[in-house]
Structure formats: C-alpha cells, structure tokens
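Supplementary notes for students who missed Thursday's class. We covered one full example, reproduced here. Read the sequence, then the structure, then the short commentary at the end.
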Amino acid sequence: MPTAPTLELRRYSRLKNLRERAERQGAALQFWARTASLAVISCFFSLISRWDASLLFVLAGLVLFQLVGLIQFRFARRRNAPWWIGYLVGTLDIILLTVLLVTPNPFAQEVAPAAMQLREGSFKFLLIFVCLGALTLSTRLALYLGALAALTWTIGVGWVVFHAGTVIPATNLYSLPMTERLNLYLNPNFVDTFAQATNVLVVLIIGAIMALVVSRSRHLSEDYVKAERARANLARHFSPNVVDQLATDDEPFGPVRRQDIAVLFADIVGFTHYSEDHPAEAVFELLRQFHRRMEQVVFDHHGTVDNYIGDCIMATFGVPQASHDDATRAIQCAEAMIAALEDWNVQRVSRGYPPLDVRIGAQYGAVVLGAVGSERNLSFAVVGDTVNVASRLQALCRELQANICFGSRLVEAAKAESPATQLNARDHGPVSIRGRDEPVHVWVEHRAENQGAIAVSA
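Structure (token representation):
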C-alpha cells in the first residue's frame, strides 16, 4: 500500500503537471493578447502620425515584436517546451523595447535631444509586456519581467543622463523655487531623475502585484480542483440537489450520531452464476447499466446511494438529514425500482436478451452514521441492526418467493408519516432471520409474473 509520503509525491507530481499545462496554455493566451495589443498600437500610430520613414520604422519594430512572440508561441505548443523560453522571449522584449524607447528614431526628420525621449510617456509601453507575463500563470516569470523592466529602464535612463549636455537637478527638485523648476522643465536636455525613479518603483510594484495575482490564481485553481474532487465523491452517493447543499458545508456529514432512517438493499437474482459463465467485460457492462438505472431511481426519491456491493446496491433515506417522509419514500423507491426493471426488461427482450429479476429488502430504524476513513479516503458509513435486518430481508425474498420484503417498522413508520398511505404489500407475519434471536415481522410484495433470472448481458 502506498505510504503517505508516496501519496504526497504523487499529488505534487499531478499538480506540477497541471501547472505546466496551464503555463503552456497561458503562453498561447499571451501570444494572442500580445497580437491584439500590437494591432491596436499599430492602428493608433497609423491614425495619428504622418506616414513617412519614421512611422514605418515604428511599425517595423512592432512587427519584430510580433515575430518574437510567434517564436514563443510555436515553442509553447510543444508538450516538452523548455522552461526557459518564456524568460528568453521576455528578456528580448524588455531589452528591445527599452532600446527603442530611449534612443532617437533614426528616420526622424528632426533629431531631438536624448532627454526628450524620456518625456514622451513611452515608458508605459513597458508595463504592457510586464502584464503580458502574468498570462503565463508563472509567478517567477511575472517577478522576473517586473525586475528586468526596472533594471533595463534604469540603465536606459543612466545612458541618457551620461549624454553630453544632459541636465539633472543638483538638489531635490521640489525644494527649488517654482521659477527655477520651470526653467529646468523648459530645458530640452533636462532629465527629471525623481520622475524616472518613480517609474522604476512603479514597474517594480506592478511586477510584484502581477506575481501575487498569478500566485493567487494558482491557489484558487488548486482549491477548485479539491472542491470538484470532493463534489465528485459526494455525487457518487447523493442526488444532485443534495450535493449542492453538502458542497457548501464545511462539515457536510456532520458529527457521528444515532438517527432513525430507512435502509434498502436491491440485488440481482442469479448474478453469481452469470458472472462465472460470462466474460468480465459483459459482467461489468451489466453491472454499470443496473447500477445506473437503480441509482437514478434512488435519486428521484431523494435517497442516498450508500454503497455498491457487487451486484447489490444499498440506499438510505434520511441521510444526511432526516425528513418527514423517509419511510414513505423508501417504499415508493422499492416499487419504482421494480417498475424501472420491468421497463428495462422490455428493452432487453426486444433485443433478444432474457429479462432480469431483482429482490429488494428494506427496514426502518435507528443506525449510527458518520464519516469514516482518513483524510485521503473519507467516506460516509451507516451501521447498526437496521442495516443488517434490511440486508437479511433482501435475502429472504427468495425463500418467500417475493420481489420486495419490508420490515414492519418501515411500514409502521410510513403509516405514521401519512395515515392514508396505500400499500401494495401484504402482511406475511413474523419470520426468523439469520443472525437474530427475535423474529422480524415482514410485509411482502409480489410482481404480477415472475420474469426469471438473468442469462445474458445487454
């Protein structure tokens, strides 16, 4: 049996694979978001700028960014794409964009001082590429791009500052008189180092925020997977409406407690001989069809599928919360199971297969119920004399030539719930059952005709 560390390693491996797949899908999403962003920027510059060599240079740069993104997209589509491709493309993006933003356009008709490049607000385009990195759902990549953008912009500003003729404030700019500050701003060679430091701080903060958003998204996805796994486990036992209710509770099954419920067992007659004479595939196909049909009947009557034991299905009524008509619904469910089986037999006979026969036992009484198992494999259990009696009543059907055997406590509870309840079963009287000293008062119900045992799977 796998140990706890082994199970934890398997869980970690599954989560790692899910994350890698999400990152690959995020890289594809990043490419399309990048394409849309570059298309919008291209249209914007085409509309507001004069068509000349300078504009064509800008558009060529945007095309180059798209080609770099296409390289990453092609790698991202591969299952074994190298982890470093996102970092490489991000590095090329940030460095290339910084060079284009801080250096003059070589085709511009008028060459402006290098300091003027920093005043045009083009720094904001760096933020687009930092945000695009978050779409990969990689926390490290988001942090890396934010830090790289801050570093390259700092280097770019430094390159401008060290240009001959560049003017920077000798003291705190905001401590100077307004006249001196205006004179500095009007100087085309002036670089506001405080504003550029603010830009660096902003890109670092945005990079950190993007990393936090990605980290939060990853944790939410893990929580969602756990919630869906828990919901799937509940759906194996409860009807969809009960699953919706239980899925919202922190402790869906509640504490271990004693409670009066109805318990039902339904079993295919002759299944053991059938399983010995037929291939395993046919056996399991029959079981799946039988369980699916009987399960739906149980859910239609707001019952709970407690367990599958081979060809036997165990259902309870009053779990997890007791209702005012649990016994009545158990009786109605047993009769509906017989009706559903008869409908299925019509289909089987029409296809050339013999009909099936099922025997059902049900009882009402006190049980102990609660969650059992470990955190890795938690299930809901119902134990007690009522469960044992219901199982024995199902086995008693063959001896009494009955399709359904109800314990008298179930019938009494149903009459107490609704005095006008009409029963198709008849009072058979006390019967001794295996494993019990005292006899059990039994009510039996027969179908109009005996349809025989199974022979061939549909």
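Commentary. Confidence is low (pLDDT under 50) at residues 449-458. The chain has two domains: 4-232, 249-445. If anything here is unclear, bring it to office hours.
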